[in-house]
Queue: 4 jobs
Job 1
Amino acid sequence: MFKLLFVFAVLILSSNASVQDFCVADLKGPESPAGYSCKSVTKVTVNDFVFSGLSAAGNTSNIIKASVSPAFAAQFPGLNGLGLSAARLDLAPGGVVPFHTHPSASEVLLVVQGSITAAFVSSANTVYLKTIKKGELMVFPQGLLHFQVNAVGFNSVAYVFFSSSNPGLQITDFALFANDLSTKLVEATTFLDEAQIKKLKGVLGGTG
Amino acid sequence: MFKLLFVFAVLILSSNASVQDFCVADLKGPESPAGYSCKSVTKVTVNDFVFSGLSAAGNTSNIIKASVSPAFAAQFPGLNGLGLSAARLDLAPGGVVPFHTHPSASEVLLVVQGSITAAFVSSANTVYLKTIKKGELMVFPQGLLHFQVNAVGFNSVAYVFFSSSNPGLQITDFALFANDLSTKLVEATTFLDEAQIKKLKGVLGGTG
Amino acid sequence: MFKLLFVFAVLILSSNASVQDFCVADLKGPESPAGYSCKSVTKVTVNDFVFSGLSAAGNTSNIIKASVSPAFAAQFPGLNGLGLSAARLDLAPGGVVPFHTHPSASEVLLVVQGSITAAFVSSANTVYLKTIKKGELMVFPQGLLHFQVNAVGFNSVAYVFFSSSNPGLQITDFALFANDLSTKLVEATTFLDEAQIKKLKGVLGGTG
Amino acid sequence: MFKLLFVFAVLILSSNASVQDFCVADLKGPESPAGYSCKSVTKVTVNDFVFSGLSAAGNTSNIIKASVSPAFAAQFPGLNGLGLSAARLDLAPGGVVPFHTHPSASEVLLVVQGSITAAFVSSANTVYLKTIKKGELMVFPQGLLHFQVNAVGFNSVAYVFFSSSNPGLQITDFALFANDLSTKLVEATTFLDEAQIKKLKGVLGGTG
Amino acid sequence: MFKLLFVFAVLILSSNASVQDFCVADLKGPESPAGYSCKSVTKVTVNDFVFSGLSAAGNTSNIIKASVSPAFAAQFPGLNGLGLSAARLDLAPGGVVPFHTHPSASEVLLVVQGSITAAFVSSANTVYLKTIKKGELMVFPQGLLHFQVNAVGFNSVAYVFFSSSNPGLQITDFALFANDLSTKLVEATTFLDEAQIKKLKGVLGGTG
Amino acid sequence: MFKLLFVFAVLILSSNASVQDFCVADLKGPESPAGYSCKSVTKVTVNDFVFSGLSAAGNTSNIIKASVSPAFAAQFPGLNGLGLSAARLDLAPGGVVPFHTHPSASEVLLVVQGSITAAFVSSANTVYLKTIKKGELMVFPQGLLHFQVNAVGFNSVAYVFFSSSNPGLQITDFALFANDLSTKLVEATTFLDEAQIKKLKGVLGGTG
C-alpha cells in the first residue's frame, strides 16, 4: 500500500510544484501593477511570512510626538499580493498623526495601549469622530481624510491594518508644504494665507 | 428555412432574457457595495445610456470662479457598475478647482477649451505639475491630491473621466473647514494657525 | 465673498449627496455577492465605524481552552464592502485554535499578549511554522490550512485581520465530524479509522 | 469534555450563522452589478448547487444544425457570484455555432463527443484555428470573436465553461440582422451590400 | 523645532520610498496579466502622465472617412494599471467607425465637435441608438457591438474613454475579412454569401 | 478604394500591435501576484490555446484508485490571467478524491462517464451531498472542503473547471500527514489520536 500511495503522493506533489499559493516579494525583480515579482518558492522560508519590525516602539521625539512604522509589502515581503498590510502608531502625550489619506486602501485601527481620538471626513464633509479605547476598533473607509490624536497623558499605541499590501500614505501637510510647489499655487488652491504657507514650508523644508 | 431559424432565434433570445449586459441604476432600490440596484431591462431605454447634463457651462459666479458638474452613476444611471464616470470643469479667468482627491478612482483630464495648469502630489510628496492645452490629456493616479487652475485669461473647459462609476470627491478645504470639527483639533492635526482656521471656517460655513 | 462661496458649497455638497464613500451593512436588506445592502447615509453614525466587541477577553472555559470572537461585517457593519475584517483570539494555557481555513481571505495575526506558535501548510504540503511573540506579525495566505497554539503558560491574546469583510471560517474538525456526513464517507475520504471518526463525531455532536 | 466542547461548538456555529460562503441567486430579488440577490441560507439545499439541464442533447433541428444550452446563474442559481458558468453545445453534421462573443468572460471548451473545428480572432485580426478532438480543451480569451463548427459526419458535443456567472452571448449575425436597425445604417457600418443585408434580415426576422 | 520635524520628515519620506502610487509602463520590461512592468520611480517625470498625441486631428482620407487614434497604456504609459484609457475619433462627412467591440472595457463617448449617431446592440439583440450632440455623453457597456457615424455635413470629433488601460479594439469587418480565414469557414459561420465575402476580403486584403 | 482602405487597415493594425488580448504564460519569466509573465505575441500560436493532456485517462493504480490531472496555467499556458482552468478526474471502482480545498477558486464539476457522489461542507458545517450522473454539473464554492467518490462499479470520469488559472489544491490528508509537522502539534490541532496520526504519517511519508 505504501508504495502505491507513494506514487500518488509524488504525482500530486509534482503537479503542485508550480502552484502559486503566495507571491513573496522579490524587491529586486520587476514590479507590475499587481505588485512586486515573486521570489522563487525554493528560497521562501517561514521568516518571509513573519515580521518583527513592529514589536518595538517607534521614536516619538519629534514635532508630532508620534511615529508611524509601516509593514507594507516593501518591509514585509510575505504580504505581497495578499491584499493586506499593517503599521504601528506610537503617540506620546500630545502626539498626533496629522490629517492624511491612504490612496488605495481602507484601514482598521486597533488600540493596544492608552486611548486615541480619531476621525475621518466623508465626501459630504461629515466628520465621524470618536475616542477609541484599548481593545476597540475603528474603520476608515478607502481614500478619505483621517487623523489620530493621543487622548491620554501617557503613551498610546495602536496597530492599523490596510486592505492592500501597498496602501500608500499621503500626509496632507507634507503634500502641500514639503516640496517645491510655489507658494502662489498653494495659496490659489488652498485659500490659505501666504504667510501661513511660507511658515509651514519653512518648518517642513519646502521651497518656492 | 425561415421557420427553422425562427425556432432557433426564439430559443436563443429567450435564453438571453436573463443576461445582464448592463445594470442601469435604479436609484430607489437597495444599494450594495458594488453600486445601485439594476433597473428592470424592460424599462431601460437608450436615454439611460445618454447624458446631456454636461453640455452647458456650469456657473462660475462663485469664490473659486469655477464649477464641477458631475456625471456619476447617481446623475447618469447607465454608468452604474461599468467602472466609468465623468465630470465637466468650467474655469473662468482666475478659476480654480482647489486641492482634492477622489477616494476610489483614477482620473483622466481632457482640455477642450483654453489651457489648464494641473498637478498631483505623490505619496513621496513629489509634485507632478504641467500646463495642459486644448486636446491634451493628463492622468491623476487614484486617491492622490491634485488641483486644476485656469492658465489663460478666458474661460477654460475640461472634461474628466474616472475609473469608477462612483469616484467620490473630497475637497481638502471643505473637509477641513466646512464642518463642525473643533478648531483645536484642526489646529492639532494640520499645524495651521488658529486664526487661519477660524478665518476659513468662517468663509466656508464651518463651526467649532 | 461668503455668499458666493456658500452657493458653491451648497452646489458641491448636494452633488455629493449621492456619493457612496462607504456602505454600512443593513443586515435586514437583501444581500448580493458583493456583501450586505447599504444602510441609508442619513442613519449612519460614527458608531457604525467603531466596534467594542473585541475589547473583553473571550471565554476559554471549553475543550480547546480558546475562543475566537469575530468582527466581520455581520458584527461590525461599517466594514461591509471595505475588504477588511478582524477577530480576537484568546488562548488559555494549552489553548488551541485547531486547523482551519478562511475560504475567501488572507489573514495577518498580531500577538498582543504572550506568545503563539502558528503554522500554515502550502499546497505543496510544506509547513511554515513559527513562534510569534508580542508585537510580531504573521501572515497566512488565502485559503490555506493553519492553526494557532498558545506557546506559554499563561493567557495569550492575538488579533487577526482579514482581506475580506466576510472571510469565512471553516474548522476542519467541525467540517469533518460535527454534522451528519456518514462515517463510511468520512472514512473513505479521509483514510481515518472508523473508531477515530466515531469518537470525534461523539465529542463534536455529529451523527451518522 | 463533551459539555465544554459543546459550548465551544455552539459558540462557533452561531458566530458563523451570518457567514456568506455562497450567494445562491434569488431570481426575484433586486439585482446589483455583482449579480443576483442571495437566497436565504435557510432555504438553500444541495439542489441549488446541482444542475441537470445539460445532460440531455439540445434540439439541432434548426438552420444552424446546432444548439447552445446555457447554465448561467439565471438557470443554475448556485453559480451566482462565483465567477463560473457553463453551456452545452450540440452540433449535428454540418452544425455551426456562428461567430459570437461573450462580452464579459473567457471560455474554455471541452469536446466530449466527436470533433470540433474552432477559432478565435485577436484584436490584431490573427486567426487562431484548430480542430479539437474528444477530451481536448481550447480557450477563447475574453470578448474576442470565435466560432465552433462540427468537424465530423456525426453529432459532436462539447461543454464550455466561462469565467463569469453571467458571461453574456452576442451572436454577430443576430446583433446585425435580427432587429430594427435600418438597412442603411447596417450597410454604412459593415460595408456589406444592401441585398445581402436585406436577405439576412429576412431570414432572421429583422426589419428596417 | 525644525530639527525634530526634519527627523520626522526624513523618516516618513524614506518609509515612502517604496510606495507604489502608480506604475508607469516600461514598455521593454516583462508584461503580466495586470499590465506592463513599472518604470523606476526615479525616472518618472510629469511627462509620463501627460499625452499630447490626441490634440491634432487624425487623417480621415481613407475609405471610412474616419480615424481612431488610441491613447492606451502602450501610447500613454502613465495610464498603465490605472483602469483608464482614451482615444480620439475624427469623422469627416460620411465618416464611420464600423461595428466593433472592446473585449475588456466599457466606453464613454464625449462629442466635442459636430454630432454623431451611435448605437450599441445588447445580448438580447436590442439596438440602443441615438444621435449625440456636442457636449453630450453616451456609454457603451463592456464587450458589446457598437458603431459611430458622423451625423452632420462637416467634421465631427469625439473623445472616448475606457474602463481599462488596455481596452482592445476588434473591428468586426477586419476580424472577418482581413486575414486568412477561408471563405468557406466565413460563409459557414456568418451566413454571408460567398461573393460578398470574397468582395470584402479583396477590399480589406484578406486571403483564402 | 483599395489603396485608401489599405492605409486605414495598416494604421489600425499597427495601433493594435501592443494590444494585450491575452497573456500566454512564459513559464521562465518573472511571476507577479497576477500570474506568469506574458510570452511575446510574435511567438504565440494556436497550440498555446489548446491542451491535449486531459484526453487520456489518468493512472488509477494507487491507493485512492483515482487520479487528478491538472490543466492549470503551468500546464496550459494559454489560460494565464484569464480566470479559468481545468482538471480531469479518473475514478476506478472504489476511487476517491479525498477531502480537499482550492484556496483561491470555485469549481464546477461535469461528469462525463459513470456517476460520482460529491459533497462540500459550508462554514456552518452543513453538508451538501449529491450523486451526480453523466452530463450533470455540481458547483463547489470557493475555498470550502469537498470530496468526490465513484458511485458505480466501473470507471467514472469527470472534468472540473475553476474560476482561477491557478486554483491551488490542498488535500487535507497530505497537508496534515505528509510533512514534518510534529505528531504532537498535529494531535493538539486536530484532536486525532496519536496512533492514528502516526499511522497516516507512515502511509503518506510524513515524519515527526
Note: Confidence is low (pLDDT under 50) at residues 13-18 of chain A.
Job 2
Amino acid sequence: MALKKKPTTGMRDILPREMAIREYVLALIRETYSSYGFNQIETPCVEPIGNLTGGHGGENEKLIFKILKRGEKLRLEEAKEEADLVDGGLRFDLTVPLVRYYANNSAELPSPFKAMQLGNVWRADRPQRGRFRQFMQCDIDILGEAANLAEIELILAMTTLLGKLDFKNFTIRINDRRILKGIAKYCGFPEDAYDDVFIVLDKMDKIGADGVREELLAAGYAADAVEKCMGIFGEDDASAIDGETSNSGDDSSTNSGTGAFAGSGAVGLDRLKALAETLGDSLEEGVADNLIEIIEVAAESRNAEFRILFDPTLVRGMSYYTGPIFEIAMDEYGGSVGGGGRYDTMVGRFLGTDTPAVGFSIGFERISMLLMERGYEIPSTGDKVAFLIEKKCTADQVRETITKANELRASGASVSVMRMKKNKKFQKDQLIEQGFTDIQEVFAN
Amino acid sequence: MALKKKPTTGMRDILPREMAIREYVLALIRETYSSYGFNQIETPCVEPIGNLTGGHGGENEKLIFKILKRGEKLRLEEAKEEADLVDGGLRFDLTVPLVRYYANNSAELPSPFKAMQLGNVWRADRPQRGRFRQFMQCDIDILGEAANLAEIELILAMTTLLGKLDFKNFTIRINDRRILKGIAKYCGFPEDAYDDVFIVLDKMDKIGADGVREELLAAGYAADAVEKCMGIFGEDDASAIDGETSNSGDDSSTNSGTGAFAGSGAVGLDRLKALAETLGDSLEEGVADNLIEIIEVAAESRNAEFRILFDPTLVRGMSYYTGPIFEIAMDEYGGSVGGGGRYDTMVGRFLGTDTPAVGFSIGFERISMLLMERGYEIPSTGDKVAFLIEKKCTADQVRETITKANELRASGASVSVMRMKKNKKFQKDQLIEQGFTDIQEVFAN
C-alpha cells in the first residue's frame, strides 16, 4: 500500500533545531507565567462536537476537523448529513475548552483561578506561509476576578515574557467592547447591527477610513450615522499600529517613531478622555476610567519596552468579548502576535451562573518563527560530547566508555556513545556541524 | 443548544496538582534524555489515514479516531464505506509517525539520529481505570545505529530516568524476536504460524504453562511441536516477573525477593546460554552473544536499582520488531510500564532502503499515576506569595503593589495580585490550602 512520507496537508514536521527554540520558549513561558501565579492545566484535544459548534468560535467553526463516530454509533446508510456522522472535533482554540473545564471542575478550583494552557489547536484553514493547520497556542486566563487587576496582570505577564525574549518596541493596542458599543449607539446604528459595524471598523488599517465609509454606506446604513462614526475616526487610525503615534495633542508621548516607546508608555489617554466626553450617556459609566487605569498601571509597571495604545478601531473577531480587549502588534511582523480580552458571560453558558473571565493568547508559532528568522541562539546548556567506539572494541571497553559517559552526563553534559564509522573524518565533520564540542575516539586495545 | 461540561468520553481534564507532577516528570524526561544525546522532535497529531492502516499498528489499527474529509472532498451521497469519508486519523503511537518523519527528513538528519518525542496519542479503547483514550507517550528512538550500543543507551537512559523518580527494584525483561523464531523453528511450528504461536506464548504469565499448552493444542498445532515448546518453558515462567527469579542454577543472582536486585543485576544468562545450545542451528548466529552483551553491559553500567532479566516468554505485540525486545515490569503496577525493541525493516517501507532502528516508549500515564498514588511531592520551587488589595485602594497603591510583586517575581517567587474579598478569612484559608506561603494585605490609605 502507499505510505506517505509527507505530513498531513497544512501540518508539518518539526526538526531538532527549531524544536530546541520552541522548547526554550515554552520553558520560558512556563517559568514566567508561573511567576505570575498561573497554574498549568490541560484539556483533551478532542471536544464534544456540540461545544465547538455552539457559536463561540466565530469563523473558526467552519474550520473544524471533525471526528467520525465509531463502531455501532456510525450508521452510514442512515446518515443524511455530516452532523449524523460525527461526535467530536479537534479544538480550534483553548478558550472554549477552558470554559468547559472550569464548568466541569469549578468545585475543585480556587477563585480567582489563574490558568495556563500550552497546547495544539487545529483549523482547516487554507494553507499559507507561516499558517498551519495544527499550531500551538499559549493562553493565560483569570476566571473569577471582576477587578481590572486581572487585565493588568495578564498584560504584565505577557509583556514580561516578550521582554525576556528580547522583543522591544512592540505595541499593546487596547480598547473596550463597551466603547465600541457606545460609539455605535452614539452614531445611531441599529442595535442588532452593532457586530456587523464592528467587523467593518476592524478593517480600518487595511482599507483606510474612506474604505470603511464606503463599505458602511454600501451596507445600507444611514448616511448621518456613518458620517458621525467617521467623525470619531480619522485617516490616522489606518496607520495607528505602524509605530507612529496617531494621537496629536496627546499628553504622554507624542513623538513619532521609536521615540514613542521612550515616554511613559501610555499613548492615547487624551483621545480616550475626549471620546468618553463625546459619547456622554451612550457610553456605560466607569468604562473609560477603568480602561485609563489599566493603561496607566500597566504602562508604569512594565518590565519590557513597549507602549500601550488606546485604539478605538480595535475590534477582535470573537463576539464573546464583553469588556476590555487587547492585541500585540510588532513592527517585525505585520499582523497581531497575540491578543485577548474579557469575556464575562461565556462561563454562564456552561455553568448557568456567569463568572468574570479575562484571557490572553500569544501567537506561539509567529513568535517562534520571528526568533528563527532572527537567528536567535538559545543559551548554551553545557558540553555536547560524543564517544566513537571502534567496532573491534571488547564489551569491557564499551562498559568503561559508558561509565565515563555517565559521569559526564551526571555533571550536566549531553553525551552520545556511538559506533565509529569507516569514514571517520566525515562522521566527525557531521558531529561538529551538529554542535558537538568534544569528540573522543575509543580504539580496540 | 446543549453544551457539555464533561470531556469527550474516555478523555479527561487534568487538574493543577496532577499537572504539576506531570510537568515535573516531563522536565526530568527532557533533561535526562538530553543528557543521553536525544533531540526532541515533533510530528503532527493527525497522520494521513493510509499510514495508520498500513499494518504496522497491530490491534491499534482498529482503535483509530478518524478525521472526516472536508469541503468538496466529502461526498456523503456517493460514500459507500467508511474509508470513502476519511482522509486522516489521530496517531495511535509515536513510532509510525517517527518513521514517516525520518523518511521525509532524512537528508537533514544526522546518522545515527537520536529522537525524543513527548506527545499525545489516541486510541478508542474501551474506557477503564487508568486507561484513557488520549494519553501521553514519551519515546526515544535511535535510527541508523546497527550496533547494540543503541539498545544499551536506550535502556540506560530510560532506567536512569526511573531512578531519578525514585523507582527501585524494577525489572527489565528482555528477549529477542529471533530467539522466539528460533524456538518456533526448533519445535517445528509452520513458519506462517510463528506470529500466532508468539501471541499464545505471550499469555504465559496470565494463563500459566498448562494454559499455553492447551491453547496451542486447541489451535491444532502438532502435539510433538507443542511438547517440545513446553519443554523449553516451565511453570516458573508464569511468575517470572513477580520479583522472584525463576532461574535456578543461575550464576549471577539466584536469590529470591528483593535480593534479586542486589546482585550484578543480570539475571538468566545461564538459561540464555543453555537455550542457545539447545536451539543450535535453529537460532540465527550471533543473536545470543549480542543479547548477552546487552544484558551484561546494561546491568553493570546501570544508574538505578533494577535487574535485567532474560525472559524467553516476552513477545511484545507489534509484529514489526526484528531483534531485541524489552519491557519494564514494576511490582507496584501489575503490567508493563514501558517497552520497546529493534525494528530494522520499518523505515524501508517508507524510504525504500532499510535503516536500523531501536525504540523505547515509557508509559507516562502509568508512571504519573504511580507517583500521584504514592503522594509524590515535587521539589519546592520557591515562595508562593499573594497580595490581597482592598477594593478602595487607589491606582497608585495598585501600582506600588505590582512593583513589589514584580521584584519578588524577578527573584524567583510565584506571586499573585488579587482583589481582597469580603470574606477575607475564607479567602486566606483557601490560599493557604493552595500552598501560598506568604499572604500580604494592602489596605486603602
Note: Chain B touches chain A through 108 residues (CB under 8 Å).
Job 3
Amino acid sequence: MVQQAAPEVLICEVGPRDGLQNEPETLPTAVKRELVERLVRTGLRRIEITSFVSPRWIPQLADGEALAASLARPDGVVYSALVPNARGYERFSGVGGLGVAAVFASASETHNRKNVNRSIAAQLEEIRLVSERAHADGVRVRAYVSTVCGCPYEGEVALRAVVELAERLLDLGADEISLGDTIGIGHPRQVRELVAAVAAEIPLDRVALHMHDTYGRALANVQAGYEAGVRAFDASLGGLGGCPYAPGASGNVATEDVLDLFERAGVRTGVELDALVDTTQWLQDEILRRPLPGRVFRARLGARRGAAECAPGGAGDAE
Amino acid sequence: MVQQAAPEVLICEVGPRDGLQNEPETLPTAVKRELVERLVRTGLRRIEITSFVSPRWIPQLADGEALAASLARPDGVVYSALVPNARGYERFSGVGGLGVAAVFASASETHNRKNVNRSIAAQLEEIRLVSERAHADGVRVRAYVSTVCGCPYEGEVALRAVVELAERLLDLGADEISLGDTIGIGHPRQVRELVAAVAAEIPLDRVALHMHDTYGRALANVQAGYEAGVRAFDASLGGLGGCPYAPGASGNVATEDVLDLFERAGVRTGVELDALVDTTQWLQDEILRRPLPGRVFRARLGARRGAAECAPGGAGDAE
C-alpha cells in the first residue's frame, strides 16, 4: 500500500463513550465491540471506548472492563476511557492496554459541583492521584475541561477561569486538554478568543476542541478553532449523543460532518469518510433503528441512492 | 416604544417560498397567510411569500395570487416572490404591492438547463424583460445565482463564472444578488474567496448569501460570509425546505440558527428570536405535524421546558 501523507488533524472519536452515555439504550457488549472495530477500520486512531464512572450514573457503559478486554489492540490505535477519580482508575488499570485515561473538571464551580458533587479543588486532587498512577503505568492523561464557552448554571464563564484550569491540569500531569463547549453555546469569535487565550499559556499541540451542536454552531466553532491553530477535534459518529434530558436536541458534533468540513478544504484527516458513513448507517439502521442527527452521512447515503438535487425553479419552463 | 438601533444584518425569510416549495404538503392559503403574518410579527422585514413558477412544477405554491392578495402590506415589510420569466411577471404584477421580483439563473450551464430547460443566455434575456417591466412598475429586482459553490452536474463551478454572471445580472437591472450554495457543498474558506471575488466587482451592500445545510456547513459559511463583509442572509424558519428527492436531507439553513449565531456575537438582527421560535413550533406541531431540522428552535423549546444540561460525568460521585 502506498504510504499516505500524515493526517493534518487528529479526530478523536468519542461516540462509544460520549455518544452512548447520552443515549437511552444500553447496547450489548458484543455490539459495542463491533462498533469499535468498525471505527478502527475507518482509519480513526483515537477512540474513546467507555467510561469508568459508576454504573449507577452511567448504566449504558457498565460493561467497560468487559468491552475493553474484548478488543484487540491494533497498532497505531489509541483507546481512551473516562476516569472520574482514583477508584475509577483502579478499574481502568485493571483492564490494561488502554492508552489514555481521560479525567474531567469544569471551568464553572457550580457545574463541577452539580456534575460530580465536589468542588473543583477536590476534583483536582483526584486528578492529581489519577495522573500519578497513570504515568507510573505509562498511560497518558487527557483532561476534559467542561463549560468553556458558558455554563447552564452560572451563565458566562470567564476566559481566565478556563485558561487557569487548563494550566493547573497540565501542572497536575495532564498530557492533553480537551476544551468542551458542554452546552453548545459558543460562537466562532468566542472560540477564536478562547483558543488565543489558551495558546498564550499552553502549546496548542496539547489542545483539542470538543464542540457541541446544540445550537447548530459546532462546525462553525470547529472552523474557528482550526483557523486559530487547533489540530485535534472530538466528534461522535452520526452525531450520536443527544442530551437525554432534551429529546431531539443535538449534542455531540457528527464525525462525518467534521471530516467533510476538513476534506473539502483539502485538510488531510486520515479517515475514510465513506467507511464511516457505512458504520453510521449500520448503527442507525440495524442497531438503534432511529435517526441520527448528522448531516453528512445522511447526504452521502442520499447521494448513493442517486437522489437529485433541488433547485429554485423546479424542472422545466414556467408559464 | 423606545426606538431601537438599526439592525446590522438583514435576514431574508424564504420559508414560505423556498421552504414550502421543497416540502411535500400543499398548505391551504389561509395557513400560508397566517404563517406570513406571524413572521411579520417577529420583526422580519424581508419575506419571500410565494413563487410564480408554473403550478405544474410547484403545485405547493399554485395559490400565489390569492395569498398575495390576502396579505396586508405593513409598513417597513417587503414581500418578494419568485418570477421565472416574463409570463411569471405578468402574474406578479397583477397582484400589486409586492416590492421585489426575484429572478434566478445558474452559474452552471448544465444546472440552468436542467432546472429551467434553457441556456443561461436565454435565461438572461427573460431576466432583462422582467427587470424592465419591474422597474417601470417601481418594483425592485433580486437575482438569485445558483450553484455558486458547486454544481450537482458539473462539479466545480469557476469563481469567475459566478462573478461574471452576477455582474451581468446587475447590468440587466438586478438591484440585489443572492448567491446560492444550491447543494450546500461550500466550505468557509471557499465562501470567503467567493465573497472577496464578488466584492472586487460589486458593492457588497447589494449581495446576500443563501446557504444550504446539506452537509451541516451553512452556519460556518454564513459566519465566513459575514467576516468577509456580507450583511444579508437568506434563511427559512425551522430549516423548512428539505430536498424532496432526498428525504431527511437538510436544505435551507434555519432562520433561528442564523439569528442566534448573530445575537450571541452581539450583532443586531431586528428579529425577535423567541417570537420566531413560537412560529416555528406552531408550524411544526400544529400544521406539519412532523419534526423540522433546525437546532436553535428545538434547543429553545427544550430550555423552556426546563431541560437540564448534559455533562461528562453524570451526576454524583463515581465509585
Note: Chain A touches chain B through 80 residues (CB under 8 Å).
Job 4
Amino acid sequence: MFSPKFVALVQALRGLPSVGQKTAQRMALQLLEHDREGAAQLARAIVAALEGIGRCESCRIFSETPVCPVCADNHRDATQLCIVESPTDWLAIEQSGAYQGLYFILSGHLSPLDGIGPEDIGIPELMNRLANSPVEEIIMATSATIEGEATAGYIMDRVDPARYKVTRLAQGVPMGGELEYLDAQTLSLALKSRRSV
Amino acid sequence: MFSPKFVALVQALRGLPSVGQKTAQRMALQLLEHDREGAAQLARAIVAALEGIGRCESCRIFSETPVCPVCADNHRDATQLCIVESPTDWLAIEQSGAYQGLYFILSGHLSPLDGIGPEDIGIPELMNRLANSPVEEIIMATSATIEGEATAGYIMDRVDPARYKVTRLAQGVPMGGELEYLDAQTLSLALKSRRSV
Ligand SMILES: [Zn+2]
Ligand SMILES: [Zn+2]
C-alpha cells in the first residue's frame, strides 16, 4: 500500500528485537515524516559501527581497538576472570560497578538440541585465554537457567580445580532470571556474596 | 563503557519512537552480535527511503513518484476527499478497505499554543488541492481530540458549504482516540455511518 522503499524500510526495522509490524511502520513514518536528519544519522551510525567495531582479542567484547579499554586497563584485577554469556550481561555487570576484574564473553550458552556446541560459543578461545594468564579466580556468571548452569558445568569440568578458585554468582540471581534484566543493586549483592563451587 | 561507535549507534536508535536507553542498547547489541547483515540492510533501507521517497503532489502521502499510486488510480472516486492528520491515519483507513475515494494528508493538527498554524500543517495546499478538483464530498477524518476537532472546524469555516458536502467520521471513533490505534472494523463502521455536519 505504501511505496516499495517504504515497505523495505519497515521490513528492515522489523529485524530489530521486539519490533513488530505495527511498531516498524510507526518507526518508518516517524523517520520520514518528522526526523529525516535522525534517520540519516541512524544509517551513518550503523555503517560506522559495522565497519569500526570488532571484538577484543582478549575478552571478545565489542571493541574498536584490538584490545578493549577494560582489558587494557591495568587498574583492573587480572587475577579474576568473569565469564558471561553475552555483551548485554557484560554491560549489566559493568554498570553495577561491583566488579574490578576482567571478563570473557561467550557467544551464548550450550544448547545441544539446537546444535550449539562448545566451539560455537567460544569455549576453545576461553581455554586459550586461561592458558596464558595470571587468572586465579574464575567467576561463572552464566545465566541461572538450565542452559546457563549446564554451560558453567561444562567449563568447570575442563578447568584444573587445583589451579583455579571457581565461584558462581550468589543466590541473589533469581532462578530462570536473565542477568540483563537485573537491577544494579541485586547484581552487586550477588557478586559480593559469590560462593565457591 | 562501550566503544564510542557503539554509544553513537545507541544514541541514534533512541531517536526511534518509544525506544529508551535500555531498548536501544539491546537493539545495538542484537545488530552487532547476531545480525550484522540485517544491520547493513537497515542502513541501506534508510538511505534508499530518504533518497527515494518524497511526497505525492496531490495528496502529500509518501511516494516514490510525483503522484502516488492511490491518486493515480482512476478506479478511485475522485469526488470524495478524505482529510487525515498523518500518514499513519491514512494507512489505518486504507487498511480498513472501506474507502475508495482520495485523500489529503495534513502534517498534524493545529496547535496555536505550540505555534503550529495553518501553514505548518498544509492547509494552504489543501485549499489549492480543492480549487481545481472534482471533489464533491469532504470527509473530515481528523482525530477525535480537541485539536483534531479544532482543525476540522478551521477547515470547515473555509470551504463553501454550497459547493461541498462535508462529513465527519461517525461516533464509532472514541473520544480522545487516535485513528491509528483503531481496529479495521471500527474504522469501517465509522466510515459507513459518517454524517453530514
Ligand atoms: Zn577485552
Ligand atoms: Zn497521492
Note: Chain B has nine helices and seven strands.
